[in-house]
Specification:
250 residues; 6 helices; 7 strands
Amino acid sequence: MERSLAEALGPDVTAAAAQEKQQLLARLLARLAHEIRNPLSSLAIHVQLLEEDVAQAAPALKAQTGERFEIIRSELQRLENLMRQFLNLAGPSPADLQTVAVPEVVRYVCDLLRPEAAARGIALVLEVRGTPPPMIADPAQLKQAVINLVINAIQAVERNGRIEVTVGADPDAGRCAIRVSDDGPGVPGEKRAAIFEPFFTTKSEGSGLGLWIVQQIATAHGGAVTVDDRPDGGATFTLQLPLGKGGDRG
């Protein structure tokens, strides 16, 4: 499916064309998710009814079908998760703006993902520089953006490395910066323009949607996300967000 979508959209030639194709893709995936979710809901209901019927049958039949029902439920859940990804790709849901303490959000994400990093031999280090003031943002969307950036770094490093997450603010410029640096292979220069496109990935893991969703969230908050090389190898992704009103949403 990812290849078919890429072929249908074709290569980017200008920024305007890229934006138009992204909007087309968002509409396509939103419609696709809607059309598939309806029969998925029906299937889930009928599987549950069928399980109830089988439960009243002979014990041997119940034992024989139990594992198969488990597989069906697991696959239905996988499809539901895929539909949720498509809806996220179509664009973040309307923002629930609140006053957010950015260091607390980032600390929560690091604590959440540190066990996964440790299991791969990766040190996940957080540094809060100064005392960044609170900002107006959607805490769930901000958390999702940081989770995606850290997961992207973990997948890039793969094993036995280091990820540094820094949070700081420039009150004079009215912006907060969240930086996620890793000592992985980095992002080749010729792929920089495509790294935030949907379904594009340079890693063996992942769907290629994570960085696209980060970009969507950053844009919705009036900010931006960029990638740069580290002097000693690896990559640094920087999420910059305004400290004021969290972007212009009209």
